[in-house]
Amino acid sequence: MRWTDPAAVTSACLLSATLAACGGGGHAATGPDTTGTGVRLVASVEVPANYGQHDQFLRAGLAFLCSWNTGLQIYDVGDGRAGGSPQHPVFISRIVTAGGEVHNAWWYWAPDGQKRYVFVGQEGPGAIGSSSSGDIHVVDISDLSAPVDVASYHLAGAGSHNFWVDEANQVLYAAYYNGGVVALDVSGTLSGDLAGREIARIQPGGPGNTYVWGVMLVDGSLYATDMLSGLWQLAPASGSLQVRGGGNNVPDRYGSDLWVANGYAYSGTWGSRAGVLGDAVKIWKLGPTGAPSLQDSIVTPGFTTVSDVTASSDGRMLVFSAEFGPKAGLYFYSLATDPGHPAFIAYYPVIGNSQNGIHTATIADFGGRRYVFAAQDPPSPAMLILDVTAISP
Amino acid sequence: MEGASGCRRLVGAAAALAVATATVARLHAQEMVGVQVTPVLTRADPVPGGSTRTELRLNAPLLFGSLRLAGGRLVLHAMLNGEGWTMPHGQLATGNFGEGWEDRRHPHTWAHELIAAATDLVALPGGVHWSLTAGKGFAPYGTDDPMNRPALIFPVDHHWSQILERAILILGVRRGALLVEGGIFNGDEPERFSQWPNWQRFGDSWSARAHLLPTRGVELQASYAHVKSPENRPGAGLWHQKVSVSARLERAAGAGHLYGLAEWAFNSEADGFFKYYAGLAEAQWSHGADRVYARLERSDRPEEERVFGDPFRSNRPHLENSNLGITRWTIATAGYGRRLTPAHLPLRMEAIGEAACARARALTGLFDVASYFGRNDLWQFSVALRIGAGTSPHRMGRYGVAAGMAPTMARAHAMD
Fold first, then answer.
1. Rounded CA gap, B181 and A151, in Å?
2. A99: nearest CA in chain B?
3. Which domain holds residue B364?
4. Can you list the residues of chain A whose pLDDT is less than 70?
5. For A37, A53, B317, B357, which has the most beta carbons within 10 A of its beta carbon?
6. What are B353-391's pLDDT values in tens digits?
7. Which of B236, B318, B325 sits opposite A127 (nearest CB)?
8. Count of structural domains, chain B
């Protein structure tokens, strides 16, 4: 276990001239790196405090902003059709799916080349650890300027959370909190009630011990992080999501998000479990069968939750977001030398102006530069766009 | 007190109280203005984290008054509350919740009530009286504010049984023993003591309340409220649907005076996804300078993630619509008060002692009471000196025709 001390970086930021450069602004702002971190804020897209910005999905120059009751917002950030760029995001359209509470999205590229559907997760009310609500919505963006909510999936007694889509096999995997993990067939035309599209479902920890946050399919295994019962290795839908390994392996903290890269899994932690805060990222070695075994941890005192974990497409950079505390913000690590023991690169604080931190972060590469799109929490909700090229390993 | 700044506040409050008392004493003859403050020493064992904590607070420093104009057809009420000054970090109150506070009672906003109530501006036939009330105060819902009731420490159900500190517009109609009120207001509750209602949200919430007085001293109440997003000020939070029913008794009992209240409340959020129930019974018997009281309560509350480094605060505004679960609190409270000053003096003082024992259990979610507090028998002891001068506070939340109908509890905090 290693401990990160970003205090020096924080001090540099607090002494800097502009709060926006420290991520505390929330207004459109660009400028040089005044944090001393090598991270440069190039744009900030304000989002109405309704409740605010929750997540974003980036693909081929389009940004799908999951802006809760403001809905799913589509921006050109490099696609070119509207002249947008990371420095100048251009709004294209917006849709509020039924019930609002737009939590996450995935723009689905089908094997036949169709790029028609965006899957949208609705996060409804829940009692963490025991109940949840919210449906999966399918938005047809055939006309990008006029998206339409065309289908939905409802699981009684549970609500959806994060997705992973096996595009080659046309299967949507959805974390479903107390409902476990659900696999849906998303082939062909999608419309109406998708209940008949359910392929498989599992509560990996069993009833009362299942509250799945996120899933990710890698090398034929579906990895699922459960807030209560840790990191699981499951078979894909073709194997009925049966448990292959892991589970009940994070008793010290509640689990949160995960990412898998380079033969390792990186899982976040959440909230307070018997007084132990979710200030850790667990690093798991995936064995020959893909089964996870704990290798290391990054513990960073000063916040309550690691709310998102992601790695760059080349597997060389790890980013996690942190919320609620004096050290909230974004953390950057290098996986280039030893992915089993990530090396600290930089901390980008988001703590000024009573900010709660960053809820989610997404890495995207455009035009030879690397950006992180980050959902800044209220009271000044926004999607921050950060140029991190200078610190990319 | 809360450190050195708290001591300065104590001295300042004492000076302000002295000035206010002198002023109030002059106005007392007109029964217009009153002032009141209650230093309270509270020991909670345990508090979140398992330790014991003892705190002194200047509770409810109030400057209040009513002005009757046009022969009483227009009444202005004002109550200024200095808790943002004397107890900005709240008051120990195990089990309490609301407005971003947990196991502490929140400080009230500076302007607790600023009300204008017009009654019978146009006379109606058939013994029907009506009133129109506007300003900042209580929505027509539920029972009396705990500040108007016997115990020192607020009950858990405060935010299930009252809707306070809103911008309100109320129509009240009364005929004989029946009173009906309907009102609109802003759904947002304050996030801090310096905050005013979100005027842009005025009218997004409504409530209705009916009172029936079947016999003298007995009051039956039923009310319903539809409140938009109280916990997310911009308006993105869940709707609350609230129900309150109560029976209230106040009458002479032998040589003394008896007060009693039984109330039940239900709060539904997200069309019943979250359901909270509350039941409370309290009674007080007073005789001469002495009063004894007791309260038994069983109320549910939401558990929310606490702020980093402060186990007594939760995040505002809410981000998502989830909580850590629901806990059910059972609390027994008993207390005794003795007036220390002769009744005829303009300055009044009362010594109060109170003890409470609470137990809580989780109904849903992952919040574990025993691990959070270290154990599950939660005690709280308070001693206080209530100081007041001038007139007594009116019965808060009863405006216009409701003010004329409802009796005032004679031996509660007002020390009349």
1. 45
2. B270
3. 3-405
4. 1-35, 353
5. A53
6. 999 999 999 999 999 999 899 999 999 999 999 999 998
7. B325
8. 1
